[in-house]
Structure formats: structure tokens, C-alpha cells
TrEMBL record:
One BP term from GO: DNA-templated transcription
Protein name: RNA polymerase Rpb1 domain-containing protein
The keyword Transmembrane helix is assigned to this record: no
Organism ancestry: unclassified sequences, metagenomes, ecological metagenomes
Keyword Metal-binding: yes
RNA polymerase Rpb1 domain segment(s): 78-218
A molecular-function term among this protein's GO annotations: DNA-directed RNA polymerase activity
Keywords, alphabetical: Metal-binding, Zinc
Record-linked Pfam families: RNA_pol_Rpb1_5
């Protein structure tokens, strides 16, 4: 995602970094070091104060989040400088499960966004955030985020949050950007045709066999795209009939396509010259 900022966050690096930490998913492993004590069947969580300060977290908030994890519920104990997680069974396997659950426990941030990096626009000097992962619906709720200019390359999310027309425009933008980076100049109308085909029924569909190509009525056209044998076998079991009305299926059987000049039958009767017999 590309997330422009507004207000003080766009001008102040410190404010922008706090917004980035609000968006980035923080797990316990990011703010603490964990040590499993198999002798006493406990896990010691040693908090990293600098990481806590940067992310605006406290020891009590972390303990509260850990208590909400099902496997850790009721096992978390807050001590003077760290947190202790006790294993409720004398089992090394259970201790390892608790260790893994605690290490991956979500403390803060938005689901789906594993990393948020600050960047600065060279032209305007304003700060913006680039993320790994996407969650458009939740990011738009974050204060100081410019909702009108926030972009994601997740077309499905755009369709769910902003509607099918926004998803269509996103397909055009992403396709043009990808082709342009490869040095290919494709007429926008070709890309618009593909985007219209992918969104014409109100939902975003893929081009592959799980989308448009897999929904074709022609058996041979589906088989020509991918997984030929399963398509033919399933069609034979269901007794499907192919009327050979499209391009691919007519090329496969070696006959003219019923489009353009192939859509009409032309009979030419030359003019008869004088003296020719009837």
C-alpha cells in the first residue's frame, strides 16, 4: 500500500513514525525477548524498553493482550521488570506450544500489514507510508491518513471497499504500470476491454481457469486454456455438447471461425457472355 499523510504527520517525521507503528502489526517478538525455562516450566518475557517506547506500549498493555490469547489465558503474571507465563501442565510439548503462541501474539497494529516503512516525497518533502501487506478498510480509519489518495494493489479489497468501478480503474492502472515498466506500449483501449470483461457482472473475476476462462460454455475453449484432460473428462461424464461457436474451438477442429468474413456464405454468379449456352 501507498499511504499519504495529512496534517502534522505529513510534515513531522516523529508523528509520521507513530502513525506507521499504529498501522504495522506488532507481535510480542518485536518488543521482547522470550526464554523458555524447562526446569520451572515457565516462559520469561524480557521487555525491550526502547521498542516499547517507540511503539507507545506499556508492560500492562502487553500483559492484557497476552491474556486475550486463548492458549495463554490466566497464565500471564506481571513482575517488576518483565512478564512471566506459566505452563499449567508438566508437559514440554505444551510449554513449546505456549512459547510459539506468545511469540506470535499480536500486540498492536492492523491485521494483514506486516511492515510499514516511512518514505519522503522528493518533490513536496511530505512524508508517506509504504506497507508490506494490505488492509484498505482498516487503514482508511486511521487518523492523519489521506483517505482520498491512499492506494493499494489489492484489487479485490478495492472492489469490496470502494465498489466495482474503482476496482475496474485499479485494474487499468496496475496493468498499464506493469506493462510500462517492461517497456511495452499497449493501447489503453485493449486494457480497458480486459478490465471490463473482469468486472462486467459486478464482481472482480480472474482471467484464469478459476474465473473467465473456466466459465466459458465451450468445452474445447476451456480445455485449450489449462488442465486439458480433466476438462474433457468432466465434459464427457456430464454429456456436454460443444456447438463450436467461438474462435478457439473452431481453430482446434480446423474449420473457419464464424466471425467476420467467416460469418457469411458468398456465392458468386459471373455474368454470362453473349452466345454462351444456358
Amino acid at each position: 500500500m501507498n499511504i499519504p499523510l495529512i496534517g502534522d504527520a505529513a510534515e513531522d517525521e516523529g508523528v509520521a513514525r507513530r502513525i506507521a507503528f499504529e498501522i504495522e502489526t506488532t507481535v510480542l517478538d518485536n518488543v521482547a525477548s522470550l526464554k523458555a525455562d524447562s526446569t520451572n516450566m515457565v516462559i520469561e518475557v524480557q521487555l525491550i524498553n526502547s521498542a516499547l517506547s517507540a511503539r507507545g506500549l506499556t508492560k500492562e498493555e502487553i500483559a492484557d493482550k497476552l491474556n486475550k490469547v486463548r492458549l495463554l489465558r490466566g497464565l500471564v503474571e506481571v513482575r517488576d521488570f518483565d512478564i512471566l507465563i506459566r505452563c499449567d501442565e508438566p508437559s514440554f510439548k505444551k510449554l513449546q506450544m505456549i512459547y510459539e503462541a506468545a511469540k506470535a501474539a499480536k500486540i498492536k497494529g492492523i491485521d494483514g500489514i506486516t511492515r510499514a516503512v516511512l518514505a519522503r516525497d522528493e518533490k513536496t518533502g511530505r512524508w508517506y507510508i509504504v506497507t508490506e501487506g494490505s488492509n484498505l478498510k482498516e487503514v482508511l480509519k486511521v487518523p492523519s491518513v489521506d483517505a482520498e489518495r491512499t492506494m493499494t494493489n489489492s484489487i479485490l479489497e478495492i472492489g469490496e471497499v470502494l465498489g466495482i468501478e474503482a476496482a475496474r480503474n485499479s485494474i487499468i492502472k496496475e496493468a498499464k504500470g506493469t506493462l510500462g515498466e517492461a517497456g511495452l506500449n499497449v493501447d489503453t483501449r485493449h486494457i480497458m476491454l480486459v478490465s471490463d470483461l473482469m468486472t462486467n457482472d459486478g464482481a472482480v473475476k480472474a482471467i484464469g481457469r478459476h474465473g473467465i476462462s473456466g466459465r466459458k460454455s465451450s468445452v474445447l475453449a476451456r480445455a485449450a486454456f489449462e488442465i486439458t484432460a480433466p476438462h474433457l473428462l468432466r465434459a464427457a461424464m456430464n454429456g456436454e455438447v460443444d456447438n463450436l461457436e467461438g474462435v478457439a474451438e473452431n481453430i482446434i477442429v480446423g474449420q473457419p471461425v464464424t466471425l467476420g468474413t467467416g460469418a457469411v456464405n458468398l456465392v458468386y454468379s459471373p455474368k454470362k457472355k453473349k452466345g454462351d449456352k444456358k
